[in-house]
Design goal:
Shape: elongated
Number of strands: 16
Helix content: 25-40%
CATH topology of the largest domain: Rossmann fold
Number of domains: 2
Largest sheet: 5 strands, parallel
Strand content: 25-35%
Length: about 240
């Protein structure tokens, strides 16, 4: 089994953007600015509508307002949900510029943070850079070759929650699916980055970024308990450092 790279080519095709903004006038103005510069826009006003669109469409970029109404999930929480479920870049477009809010937003790793009021050129520049930078990042992102039914696909390592040995095969668990490949834990460990993955058992490898909690006996990822054998307790202990 070899480590490979996803080849996501950037093209000049018409790009699509999901605009999540609760204020009608701001949404209309931002949509108009983007449309005039060649973008196709999907628009909505809250998290529920956003996921309704994302379950059907895959935009090239998501623009999130942080304040989506008093009784609605805010843009920062929505951004975190998007990161866990979708591989789509996003930027914040907001009137908030306090240090606390900015830091919380930065912690979600957006491609950009634009404050209102904004100049049209600043918006378009930020959007174009975000799309291009994400496309370039995808080109460099390592992936593994797995089976999806009868077909081979390139699975980004960021999507892997944990890997489980199943006889002569490995099962790659992700949020959306479980993929299979004929290989061994030893082989896959040799090609996965050690700063991202950790082996906890002769039959399990876990993505560190997906770990919810752990003890000396087990690790929990996505409500699944992964055992830790004695040989790997020292490696798991390093997570606390």
């Amino acid at each position: 089994m070899n480590s490979v790279f996803i080849l996501t080519n950037y093209s000049m095709n018409r790009k699509t953007i999901l605009l999540v903004e609760d204020d009608f006038l701001n949404r209309r103005f931002t949509k108009k600015t983007l449309a005039e510069n060649g973008y196709t826009i999907f628009e909505c006003k809250n998290a529920i509508e956003a996921f309704g669109i994302l379950n059907k469409q895959t935009p090239d970029l998501i623009i999130l307002d942080i304040n989506l109404g008093e009784k609605e999930k805010n843009g920062i929480a929505l951004a975190q949900d998007i990161k866990e479920r979708f591989n789509i870049p996003f930027v914040f477009l907001t009137a908030y510029d306090t240090a606390d809010i900015v830091q919380k937003a930065i912690n979600t790793s957006p491609q950009s943070y634009i404050t209102k009021p904004f100049k049209n050129v600043d918006l378009i520049t930020a959007v174009e850079l975000a799309i291009r930078q994400f496309a370039n990042l995808e080109k460099r992102k390592p992936s593994v070759l797995v089976k999806d039914g009868e077909y081979n696909i390139e699975l980004s390592i960021d999507e892997i929650i944990y890997i489980e040995s199943d006889g002569n095969y490995l099962l790659f668990h992700t949020n959306q699916n479980i993929y299979k490949n004929r290989s061994t834990i030893k082989q896959v460990v040799e090609v996965l980055p050690i700063d991202t993955f950790i082996q906890t058992h002769r039959a399990y490898v876990v993505n560190k970024s997906k770990i919810e909690k752990y003890s000396i006996k087990s690790i929990v990822v996505k409500n699944t308990e992964i055992p830790i054998s004695k040989n790997y307790i020292p490696d798991v202990s390093l997570l606390a450092q």
